[in-house]
Every structure is written in C-alpha cells, then in structure tokens.
Design brief:
10 helices; SAM-dependent_MTase; Rossmann fold; FkbM_mtfrase; seven-stranded mixed β-sheet; about 350 residues; alpha/beta; three-stranded mixed β-sheet; single chain
C-alpha cells in the first residue's frame, strides 16, 4: 500500500474543498439571478397587459362614439362627459349663458358707431329716463369712452373685449361692429334680452356671448335693486337697501370668466355700480392667465372711499397704471385719487 506524504494529502484536501465551495457558489448565484429576473418578467407582463387593456378601452370608446354619432340618437352632454379632457370634465361652469326670451323689445333706434349705424333696442324712455331717453334723442351714449375703446382695439388687432355691466350694450354693439370677440355680462335679464335682439337685428350675434350673472367676490344668490328712472343704475342689493327687487340671480367671480374667454390679450370695461372692488377681490387667477392690457373702470363711486384705495393697490400689483387718456402720456397722481375723472383707463406698463 502506497502511503501519501502528509503535505500532499493536505494539498488535495484543500483542492477538493475549493471545488465543492465553487460548485455551491455557482448553484446559489444561478438561483439568485433567476429569482431576481422573475419579478422583472412579471412587471413587464403586467405592463403589457395594462397596455392591452388601455388599447381595448380606447377602441371601445371610439366604437361607442361612432355608434352614438351615426347609429343612435346623440346625447351631447354624455358624449362631452365621456370624451372631454379630465381637466375640463372636473371644472364646473359657473357662468350662465343667456339664451334669450320669446318677447321682442318694443323700442329700437339707430346707434351711431365708428363703422356706421346699427340698431339698439332700448327700454321705454318713460321708464328709463337716463340712458334709454338719451340714446333715443342722440343715438349714442358716452361717445368719448366708446370711441377711445374702439381706437385702442384698432391698434391691437388680436385683443378681445369683456363688457362687465353691459346694460343695453352700447360698448358691446360698437365693438361687435368692429368684428371683435365680445363677452358681455349683466345682472338684468331685460337688458340682455334687448341686447340680444339688437345683435340679431344688426347681424352681430356671431362673436358675442351674453352672460346673466352678477360680479362679486363670492358665488351666491343675490337680489337686484332697481333704480327708478335709471334702469342702467340697477345694482346688487346690500343689507338694508330699500327699493324694488328683481328676481334672484347668481353671482360669479372674475376667475369664472376664464370658462368663456379665449387666451390672448384682453380689454376689460367695468361698470358694475360700485361692485368693482368686490369683483377684483377674487380675480387672482383671471389676471394671472388673461393678459389684461387695458381696463376701463367707472371711478365715480370710489372717490375718497376705502374701496378706491384697495382697487389702486390691487391693480398696481398686477402691473396696471391709471392714465389720463388713451395716449398713455400722463399717469394720474396716485395721491389725488379723489380728484380723478369719473371713468379711469388703466393700462399695463
């Protein structure tokens, strides 16, 4: 029997141990790699199934849309809910678009504009001795402000016009005659009914949207106070107001106007009988998203009042300055707001 040298025996033992450990490590690593790859395969498989489900849903929606359009009676509200973008679906429409009534107004007279005459339907001059009576006799109202507005819009071809407190629509009709996009808001359904009739008579309905809402800092139901002999001076009723009330209507905030207007430059006219400051309180998004280049505001009811100081501070913070006229050569003195004109043009500096 051949005896091995003790040194050689130890050497062979080490070799065997190394080989065995190597085999064990190889098996362990191979199993570990397989276990790691398995979740990735599962994830890829799940992703592929989800994509197939999405594709199936998209095809199903397309087929449903084709069927509802060509094979079944259409339900526009349902289709709009199903296929509108998510952001549009979630947003509630607060602006009440005025659809008009069946009764036509009785008093229609010619309105003088820079682009020729167009019909304007007024209230009974006996009932409305301020604006309707003046338009009947002279065929215009605030012609200097209207002409200034038209001149500014002519110099800015892409600018749209928002008429807050449109009343019978002297500004709206003049701007529509220019061919511009107009959004007109008023609290009186009677006034909007007259304006809608005027637009139809003048073939100007295409670019004008009428909104029956009050402008304020909250969304709520409000009462309207009618002013005797001056229907255009009607306003949102305050606590303790006495007088004749019209029907309740909903108020909206200026941010809600983003539902209606197009993107781009905007000229805003505000004549909402002292509610200008309240309307501006909730207009942060409006001024952020709409490029308000000009704002023509009735200032008469804010002279020497805290509301005037708040308006000045807010509009200055949004990059607007008060000017003496549309030439924008002279800024009105901020410390003498009580002596400003009854109507002030604000422009972006």
């Amino acid at each position: 029997m051949v005896e091995l040298h003790p040194g050689r025996l130890r050497c062979r033992t080490v070799v065997y141990v190394v080989v065995i450990l190597t085999l064990i490590a190889t098996v362990f690593i191979s199993r570990l790699s397989v276990s790691r790859r398995t979740p990735r395969k599962k994830i890829k498989e799940k992703s592929r199934k989800r994509q197939q489900e999405r594709d199936y849903i998209d095809v199903t929606r397309i087929e449903h849309k084709v069927q509802t359009q060509f094979l079944e009676p259409t339900d526009e509200a349902l289709n709009e809910t199903l296929y509108a973008p998510t952001s549009r679906r979630r947003r509630k429409n607060h602006c009440k678009v005025f659809r008009g009534s069946t009764e036509g107004p009785k008093h229609c007279v010619p309105l003088k504009t820079k682009y020729g005459e167009t019909p304007i339907c007024i209230f009974d001059p006996v009932e409305d001795r301020m604006i309707s009576s003046y338009i009947r006799d002279y065929g215009t109202w605030e012609p200097d402000l209207v002409n200034m507005t038209i001149d500014i819009l002519q110099a800015n071809p892409a600018m749209q016009f928002i008429d807050l407190g449109c009343n019978l629509g002297v500004f709206t009709l003049s701007v529509a005659k220019l061919g511009r996009r107009v959004v007109s808001v008023d609290i009186l359904s009677r006034a909007l009914d007259n304006l809608q009739h005027s637009l139809k008579l003048g073939n100007l309905t295409e670019n004008v949207t009428l909104i029956l809402n009050a402008m304020s800092n909250t969304r709520e139901k409000v009462k309207i106070n009618l002013v005797p002999d001056n229907i255009g001076g009607s306003h949102v009723g305050q606590h303790g107001d006495m007088g004749q009330h019209e029907e309740l209507i909903y108020s909206i905030i200026m941010d809600d106007l983003l539902e209606i207007i197009d993107s781009g430059e905007v000229f805003v006219k505000m004549d909402i009988e002292g509610h200008e400051q309240k309307a501006l309180e909730n207009s942060k998004e409006f001024f952020h998203k709409a490029n308000v280049k000009f704002l023509l505001m009735e200032w008469m009811l804010h002279k020497g009042k805290p509301s005037g100081d708040k308006i000045i501070k807010y509009l200055l913070s949004n990059g607007l300055l008060p000017y003496l006229d549309y030439n924008l050569r002279e800024v009105l003195p901020l410390g003498r707001a009580s002596f400003w004109p009854d109507n002030v043009l604000w422009a972006k500096r």
